[in-house]
Amino acid sequence: MTRTIAVIEGDDASPEAMRPCVELIDGLGLDISWTYPPVGPTAREQHGSLFPDRAREMIDSADTTYFGSTSGGATQALFYLRWGKQTYANVRPARYFPGARSPLAEPEGIDFVIVRENLEDMYLGIEGDLADLAPLGLVSRTSRRAVADLGEGRYAMKAITREGSERVVRFSFELARKRAASLGRPGKVTCTSKYNMLPESDGYFRDIAREIANEYDDVAFETFIVDDFACRLVTQPHHFDVVVMPNLYGDILSDAAAGLIGGLGLAASGCYGDDYAYFESAHGTAPDIAGQNSINPTATLLSGCMMLDHLGFAAESARIERAIAEIYAEGKTLTPDQGGSASTSAFCDAVRGRL
Ligand code: IPM
Ligand code: MG
Fold this sequence. Notes:
This protein is an alpha/beta fold. The chain folds into 3 domains: 1-100 and 267-355, Isopropylmalate Dehydrogenase; 102-114 and 159-261, Rossmann fold (3-Layer(aba) Sandwich); 122-157, no CATH class. Helices cover 39% and strands 19% of the residues. The chain has helices at 14-26, 41-47, 53-61, 75-84, 162-183, 202-213, 226-235, 247-261, 298-311, 314-330, 344-354, and strands spanning 3-10, 32-35, 64-69, 89-95, 111-117, 127-129, 154-156, 187-193, 219-225, 242-245, 268-272, 277-281. The chain has a 10-stranded mixed β-sheet with strand order 2-1-3-12-11-4-5-10-8-9, sandwiched between helices. It has a two-stranded antiparallel ribbon with strand order 6-7. The protein binds 3-isopropylmalic acid (IPM) and magnesium ion (MG). Magnesium ion (MG) binds at residues 251, 255. 3-isopropylmalic acid (IPM) binds at residues 251, 282.
């Protein structure tokens, strides 16, 4: 059965990472057909919109989407891939490949996954004028002042729902189970949020995680307040397996986690819903190095491996990961962010040469 992958190359340097990765995956000879939804400035010229209906239809009819990164042109497409397709679990692995440039003295063996709730929390995008909240009579728990007395200012709303929390936590436990089976050791889920200061929202998230944990006797469960977690992430990264957290913390701490294993150039990411999943690197578009053929394509390629897994091509995914590990271990064809001088395409050629 042919699998269809919609490719959205993204903005700035992102297409430079995407193109050789698509080529590499295409070269595996799998039954894959690639489609290119019109997105961004060229789509606007041709179809009058950065994200025309045609693009949405192509995403819908594809089995998955392989997404570059966006600095604006592809943002509407990104929003559609998240909220339109309800991809609620953003999986961001932090696995260290020996040879990658880590700031840690002993990064060997770091292998954990952040599962970031992907659709709610502060990311509902509900912000506004504080004056609009004044009629609600809300009073600050800390300062005891009424919102009406806070003066001129703005607010952002954070919402944590039962459904949104349950599904991402359950996803995390299932992932911990899968990892336990493949790594041959017990699984563990860590839940982190700011439940001391925000008992009604982050505490709710933690409580729901606890409830779900009771359904999984075979998986260990622990919780840390998110600031404490941030310190442990840096000082004891080997301790973690699957870490689930609300959206904003996940956005921030997954970049921090990437820093431990060699930087954003290695930060893969996949966003999963019940009916759709799409794959993107966690990094931005690197506008400063656009046009130089020097962006590190590892994050994009590892996201491609997650995509192949999702499509049922686990063996091919494992082969590419092994080849990437070998290239890092050998250290001769690394991109400038890793202290090397290889180009993006040279890195991909080296990986291909190892397959
Ligand atoms: C990410 C990015 C996005 C986010 C931006 C580009 C909207 O930082 O995927 O981590 O905040 O989720
Ligand atoms: Mg981010």
